[in-house]
Amino acid sequence: MQRLESYLGGRWVAGSGDGAVLVNPSTEEPLARTSSEGLDLGAALAHGRQVGGAALRAMTFAERGAMLGALSEAVVAARNELLDLSMLDNGCTRSDAKFDVDGASFTLAAYAELGQSLGDRRYLVDGEAVELVRSRRLGGLHIKVPRPGVAVHINAYNFPAWGLCEKAAVAWLAGMPVLSKPATSTASTAHALARALVGAGVLPEGAFGFLAGPAGDLIDRMGYGDVLAFTGSSQTGRTLRTSPGLVAAGVPVNVEADSVNAAVLGPDVVPGDAAWDLMVRDVFRDMTQKTGQKCTAIRRVLVPEVHAAAMTEALVEEAGRLRIGDPREDGVRMGPVVSARQRDDVLAGIQRFDGPLKRVRGQGRPAELSGVEGERGYFVDVHVFRARDAAASHEASCVHDEEIFGPVATVLPYDGTVEQAVTLVARGRGSLVTSLYSEDRDVCREFTLGAAAWNGRVNIGSEKVAEVAPGPGTVLPQLVHGGPGRAGGGEELGGLRGLDLYMQRTAIEGYRPLLERLFDGT
User: N or C: which end of the chain has fewer CB within 10 A?
Assistant: First the structure.
């Protein structure tokens, strides 16, 4: 059995002890073992701060961009290996694995291009110089420079490739070294990706660290100048955010957490319209892609009451055509959830929904599975729930309060007014993304302005974009990823905006002509 190593202090090292065993969620067969026991994480952080940080800060944005471009090419070169591993340790279909791996190389390439556009600079000027008093002699401006510590990234199990690269690309372009800690259950894919990145030979020493296994005392070792970016449960996010050491050192913490995302059918759309078909397609893709284990997946399907039955039937019909099983089998379009614990959590959530909601489709474990022997594997059927009537949309609090992180969605009737749709979306207390499907400009404007405060992103689906839009579940590097409230209150990506987490904005005041000459962006 393969033993996964960590990359710390510029070398590959293995932890001591038996560690954790990673298994194939389709067959429950062991894949690898990993441990972080005995590893000196304090020394790894110090090496990143002293060696990696200095090297990255000495590079221009264009040079960092060229580095990211080479790393993107390294991911592309390792693509087939990464896809095969993802099918094994994440239970992904090959299509879902591509969603992860190709997202990693695409994001690196996008930030490589941004680095080239920033040119031969090592810091950013934020805005123009301004006059501070009634004299043009005294002025002020703001600059942004790389923070002097290490960017610690704790990633979720569902996107071992994209999750690592979307955080690392932004930090590296900003000029900060990275220590990445993947979720243990899918660490095989992340480990192979880390080896590809190191093997590219373009990362300065100390610019990258990789921790395979439990985090140990990593958080306790962080200090001033460091940054923490976390993706995972809101409970863990709260624990990290209030860690005494991080609070004492003023460490910036970015959290991307649970999110009960919604899709809303506009009152102007009827069955058979292009926007209707697009919504059905997007909802079902989000329910089943990655077996519903996506932070951006649609959980709440808001439909005017007159069309709720038709939407429910459309989703049930789609589910009836879905082939579930071992993702290595031809024709399989959905595999298992990632672990026995995850399966149990999903099934427990389904049981809680059974009381206040009507279960229209789903039976726990699917009766028919392709390429699966007996009761092996962590498989969950596609489940469609429906609130019983418009009033239940208000009473069924579980739909708005709980995210079942699996192939589950609930159809919620609403009265057809934008006001009620926004009110129901807001009951999620903060989401990563909500989608509106409408062709009516007034509806789009009113809904977007009402829902924006409760969402990190609002996606508007219509006939005009039906053939080109990748869907609300796709996170693109040009737009911010994150959300308010229960979604964590953080922001990632967003092009140049993403660099703000990893850079210190500092106000400079003095003789204005001097400032304008000193800080011209070079």
Answer: N
- List pLDDT tens digits, range 107-135: 999 999 999 999 999 999 998 888 888 88
Question: Are 239 and 148 contained in the same domain?
Answer: yes
Mean pLDDT score, 325-339: 95
Side-chain-side CA neighbours of 11 within 13 Å: the count stands at 6
Sign of CA dihedral 292, 297, 299, 303: negative
Where are the extended beta strands (E) located within 192-290?
208-210, 227-231, 253-256, 261-265
Catalytic machinery residues: 256, 295
Q: Which CATH number fits the domain that encloses residue 122? A: 3.40.605.10
Residues 179, 285, single domain; the answer is no
Closest CA to 101 of 203, 189, 202, 211: 189
Residue 135, class by beta-carbon neighbours within 10 Å (0-12 exposed, 13-18 middle, 19+ buried)?
A: exposed
Structure tokens at 487: 């979604």
Question: What are the pLDDT digits (tens) for 98-114?
Answer: 999 999 999 999 999 99
Q: What is the DSSP annotation of 467-478?
A: TT---TTPPPTT
Name the DSSP class of 357: S
Q: Is the pTM of this model over 0.90?
A: yes
Domain of residue 442 covers: 261-475
Cα distances (Å, whole numbers) of residue 134 to 130, 131, 137, 138 = 11, 8, 9, 8
Strands 431-437 and 358-361: unpaired
Q: Which pair of tokens denotes residue 70? A: 């080479």
How far apart, in whole angstroms, are the C-alpha atoms of residue 64 and residue 115?
A: 6
- Angle between helical axes of 79-89 and 61-77 (0-180°, round to 10): 70
Residue 346: in which H helix or E strand, if any? helix 340-353
Instruction: Output DSSP code: residue 299.
Output: E
